[in-house]
Amino acid sequence: MIRIQTPLFATVAALAGLASVPAASHGSDAVVLYSAGIDGILNDSKDTALHAALVMMQQNGLSLPPGETSHQEEHAANLFVDVLLSQMDLRLSVHKPGPSSGDMPFGLVVSSRGNAGTSPKALVDDIQELARLDHAPRPVPAPDYPGFMTISDTDQGKPKMWIGTQDHGGHSTAAMSINTPPVLTDVDWSGCGVPSGVEPCCGVVIDFGAMSSVLAMASMMAPGADSMLSEWGLIGPKPIKIEGAAWRGGDSIRVGGRISNYGVHFGDLLTKDGIRNQDLSVVPADAVAMQVSRFNIGGMCDSMLKSIDGMAGSAMGGDAGKKPMKPSEAMCMQAKQMVGINPKTELIDYLGDTVVAYRSRSTGGDGLMSGVLLAKLSNADGMATSLGILAARLNAMVSPMSQGYAQMLSWSHADCGEVISITFPGVPIPLELSMVVKGDWLVMTLNPQAMVAACRQLDASSSVLNNPRFAKAVGRDAIGAMQVNFTDLPAQLDRGYGIAVGIMSAISNYTRPRQDAGAGVSMIMPPYADLVEGAEPCALIARMSGEDLIYSGSSDSSINVLITGASANMTAMLPLAAPLMLGVALPAMENAREAAEKARELARDRMEHNHNSGARHPQETLRND
Hints:
Elements: H1 8-16, E1 28-35, H2 37-41, H3 48-60, H4 71-85, E2 87-94, E3 106-114, H5 120-133, E4 140-141, E5 148-151, E6 161-168, E7 171-178, E8 202-207, H6 212-219, H7 225-231, E9 241-249, E10 252-260, H8 262-266, H9 277-280, E11 287-294, H10 297-316, H11 327-339, E12 351-360, E13 372-377, H12 380-401, E14 407-413, E15 417-423, E16 434-438, E17 441-445, H13 448-458, H14 468-473, E18 483-487, H15 493-511, H16 528-532, E19 538-545, E20 548-556, H17 559-612, H18 618-624
Helix pairs in contact: 3-15, 4-5, 15-17
């Protein structure tokens, strides 16, 4: 049995403080994590029973193994669950380092209004009780912050803490502050698209500008790290800031986000125009999940190679400029000698600016094996030639090394042309990775059947544009966007319902009190017909607005629906898992059988040799003597 060895109180203090520091002033929020808790998230009618079960679990306490858990560990576990399920606002702030080398520039503030299962006062009482069980110093009133107590143990290398309640926004709010005063402020979520006066269900902010002093110090520890972090927008002028939030709008959950200054640092990845109808038409109408992206693939690869050159140059110091070619160029030349093509000039440079990935019913039942990946080509003939050379060279290298168990084969199909597949003769591996150049697209699949269906789709007259749910969730908003994601949840709920029912039955049983089993919550998951009624698909669209990358989308408002959809994606992996493990196990078993047979043959040969040479048993030799 694995036991909780570190109390929650001590763990939070260690994460926030990490060193002995004087009470620091409130710095800029570098990280913000917000959750409306189960009261704000589970308020769809399909989630009513789930909400009730979780509240009952809070009120009754966790069912932990008797005799295996101490009172302190049990108290910490229940407090952790209460905080996790409550409305919660977590802020990690960064301020200028102090004069002492031991000072750490971090502060943490966690505040909560509680939920239907616990109150702010109960949370504070539980935190103080946990501090007592952890033998922390006795709390004393904080005169500068009415309603708060302080726990100070700086002599032992622990940061100062404030614990208490205050009124914030008209609500009684519990707060715990470490290494920074307990100042509660509101977060402006308007950058994510949250309407004024609407409280989000959840949200996150990561402001690299607020971390600049810490990141700058960290970059000095590795050669070339400063230039890389600056290129990625993590330090320097106009740093990256990531914001994201979800909120309720009508009968769905709306999603929004912003990556500020994205274009400043990643402008070379952007294309002049966004997604077009022809980019969407390659996706079948029955696609259950898809992503279409428009970006400069070559620019992305050039940026990666530039980073490699920068790191290698810093490592070589002054010798970097004396080399006849850049480290990335040398790597590409070595690759050409091995596999016959230069991966930069004879592969990457042939790629275009559109990448499409999808799963659909028509390409193989909408599971993992129906997956298709397409890449637009700027030089289709060059790509076809490079793939042919690459396949021939790899086949000559890999086939002898694998004793023929792995081979690359070429075959033809009327709807595809010349296809290259990776096969595993004599081994039951459930994959036949296939690729082909069809028109100006590079098509890649996990099996030939999906390949044929995907190639037929390139010439089909219908596409995802004819899917009513896609039209409602995305529609014309896709045109001109940088990326479009679409998941047809209603089309997958039947496949994930069984697993989701099992999960909810487990929650129902766990939260049901043993002393009064009838008081538990039954049937947390609605019947299938009720669950699918009115279910909405998920969509997320990304587009540029000035120098910022903006995300917007929507999903179904029921967590039970979302869990069922996630379960459906889990089942998509199951048909591949068992055959894959079997395919890996059988060759190992065959090798073991062959080794045992060789050992038996060697033993027989030794016995025959001893017999033919007249060897006698030692006792027989003694008798004859």
